[in-house]
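Worked example

This section walks through a single chain of length 307. The input is the sequence exactly as stored; nothing has been trimmed or padded.
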Amino acid sequence: MKKAEYAVEALGHKPLLLLFHSYLYPTTMYLEPFDTLSWAYQLHYYLCFGTHRHRATFAASGSDTLISDLLAEVCTRHDYHILKLKAYPDHIRLLVSLRPAQAISKVVQTIKANSAREYGIRLNLDPPLWAKGYLARSVGRVRIQAVKQYLDEQSEHHGYASRIRPPVFRYRAQQSVALDAPHASFDLNHHLVLSTRDRRGVFTSSLGEALGRFWLTVAAKRGFEIDQMTILPDHARMLVRTIPKMSIEVCALSLMNNGQHFIGRNYNGVMIEEGLDQLWRGSAYAGTCGRVTTALLKAFLSREAPS
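Given that input, the structure is written out below as C-alpha cells.
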C-alpha cells in the first residue's frame, strides 16, 4: 500500500492544560508512518445482489447449483471465505468472512464480474447477468448494542471509575450521520482497537479528548464515521462505520498515522517522556457487529427455502 493513501489531515486545537509541552520540547517531531499492520480480526458481512431486471434466472433445474458452484470458485480463488451461500431464482444471499485489507465494493465487483463471465460461458448467455447495486451489512459474534455497552463500561472495566479524574475520554455521537455510496445499500460497523507502543500509558483524559476530537475531523474528511469511542491511557476502542470502498485496514491506518502526526506535532513532550519513537503498536483488532449475529443469520439462511 502507498503511504500517500494515509495523508495527514488538518490539525485541531490544543487543550490549555497541555500547552506547556510547547515550551519544554521542540515544536514538532517526525514519527515514521505505518503502511501495514498485523491483525487480530473477525470480519463477517452479509451480501445480497439480484439478477438483471429481477429475472428468475436461477429457477431452472440445476441453474441454482451451477451459480452456487461458480460463486464458491470465485470466492476461493480470491480468498473470500464463504460462511453460507444461498441461491434464489432472482438473487443471491451470501455470508462471507473477509480480511482487513479487503473492501466490500471490490469484493462484490469481483464476485459479480467473474461469476457472470463464467455463467455466460457455461450456458452461452449474453450479459448482463446481474443488476446494478447490492446490499451489504456487517454482522458479528455479538450484536452492535453489546459492543456499545462494552465501550461505555471501559472505565469501570479497567478500574478507573473510582478516581476523581479518570484518565479516560469517552465520546458518543448524538446523531448518526448517514453515509452513502453509488448503487449500494449498506451498514458496515466495526469495533476497532488500537494500542500504544509497548502499552505505554500515554493518554490522559485531556490528551485523549484532543486526539478524539481530531480523529472526528479525519473521519469527516475521509468519509467514514466514528459513532463511539473510549480512549484509555494505553489504548483506544471505537465503533467505526465505513463506506464500501474503504477497507477497515485503510481506515485504521488513516486514524493511526494522522493521530500519530497530530501528537508528534502538538504534544511531542509526551512521546519524549515515554521514550517512544512511534505512538502505536504495529497491530490492531477489528471485529464486525450488526443488528443480528453471524450465528443467527447463518441459521436463518440454512433453514430458509429458496422461493
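What to look for: The chain has two domains: 3-41+139-289, 44-138+293-303.
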